[in-house]
Amino acid sequence: MEPEIQHPVATALAYLHEEWEQCILHKDIKPKNVLLDSKFNAYLGDFGMARLLEHNKKGHTTFVVGTMGYLALELSHTRKANIKTYIFNFWVMMLKVTCGRRPFKPNLPEEEVYLLDWVWSLHQSSSLPLCVDPRLVEAYDLMQNKLVL
After folding, report:
1. How many domains in the chain?
2. What is the reported pTM?
3. For residue 38, is it within any domain?
4. Is there a contact between 46 and 22 (Cβ–Cβ < 8 Å)?
5. Nearest to 44 by CA among 74, 84, 87
6. CA triple 27-31-32, angle to 5 deg
7. Which run of H or of E encompasses 121?
8. Which domain holds residue 96?
9. Is 14 inside any structural domain?
10. 3 in a domain, yes or no?
11. What is the tens place of the pLDDT at every residue in 115-124?
12. What CATH number does residue 40 fall under?
């Protein structure tokens, strides 16, 4: 069994999605919206796009909100938002931190424009360790990076 990663933002999302009296969808989870205190504890901030939902109900958006590259792929087609579509934001944020590159870079070759496509192609060629930001090589936890990737 793989170890569970305790991440303060993941804990905050679990609380917002499951434990509060209504479900709160943040809708824009990205590094820029994670705040650090003086001890480098992470806190989720900027709830400007947030939406309240009743628990166990699917939301329906009239327009897609969020940041390019962080949006769940199906959201732009179905316009149906739920907890899973916004957990995707968190996962992309974790990939961005692990890989050290933005989720969308239009100036790269077509197969690398989207971070997800690039990571997936390296996974298919059994080259996933190449995804890890070279600046992290000396200081990263191999198991945590494997879980994220």
Report:
1. 1
2. 0.77
3. yes
4. no
5. 87
6. 85
7. helix 115-124
8. 8-148
9. yes
10. no
11. 988 999 988 8
12. 1.10.510.10
